[in-house]
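Incident log, entry 3
Record: 2-C-methyl-D-erythritol 4-phosphate cytidylyltransferase (254 residues)
Problem: checksum mismatch between cached and fresh output.
Input:
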Amino acid sequence: MSGRIWLVVPAAGQGRRMGADRPKQYLPLAGRPLLVRTLTRLHEALPGARLCLCLDPDDHHFDPAWVPFAHWRRTPGGAERVDSVANALDGIAPDAADDDLVLVHDVARPCVTVGDLKRLVAAIADDPVGGLLATPVADTMKRDDGAGRVRATESRDGLWHALTPQGFRFGLLRRALNEALARGLRVTDEASAVEVVGLAPQLVAGRRDNLKITHPEDLALAELVLSAQESAHELAAQAASSTPEAPPRGANSA
Ligand SMILES: Nc1ccn([C@@H]2O[C@H](COP(=O)(O)OP(=O)(O)OP(=O)(O)O)[C@@H](O)[C@H]2O)c(=O)n1
Ligand SMILES: C[C@](O)(CO)[C@H](O)COP(=O)(O)O
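Fresh output:
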């Protein structure tokens, strides 16, 4: 790997399922715009990365002062997520090398942890295909009959929820997305495109609380997750900085 990392953040969605007065990435989450929360996490983990933010060309909510990265650019969002990501890859193409690592992360996933981001990068650093954060399915899976009743119970063996980031080499990802689009496949994540060209992305087990904010109730859940993560982080920092107590005088030190 060349060592250069690009972060592509699709943030051009309209948030229709959220049903708010503005796209969900601009709704307040624990007092700050959701987009700021996501960019802050990414920057904490990968401060030297180059950011490419996919934004709706008609977006009037975005404030460039929110971006913590030294190297960043914006590219126009497309009709669907895959189009936004393809535009981003076109946008960085003049400066990206084929073996640069590209991590694609939904702006709608603000609870991704620094630990998971670093683990993903380490896990795929020497993987010629790349991979994605994912969690094994934990519920019993039902298939409906189209009329609100169960047609079958599906096996959950080997099923995973695909999360983001998803990380692949620039050259491979661009080829894969262009191939999927040329075949008319509206892939919903980067891994699907890489599967289209016959490769098997690595599943990197991630935290279940890396949730995608999609529906109104997800905002309250994400606030709870962020608060729990901050508390755990503070406790760990306190434990690391506290001086171990000196053993009592005369105690056996063996
Ligand atoms: N044309 C699009 C559609 C989606 N996204 C981004 O892709 C991610 C995942 O999409 P989703 O959760 O479906 O977001 P929305 O499209 O905003 O939501 P909805 O489908 O409810 O409208 C989000 O970060 C969203 O901003 C994008 O960049 N360009
Ligand atoms: C990429 C993704 O987050 C993986 O779970 C998800 O597919 C994006 O949401 P969408 O509704 O499919 O755009």
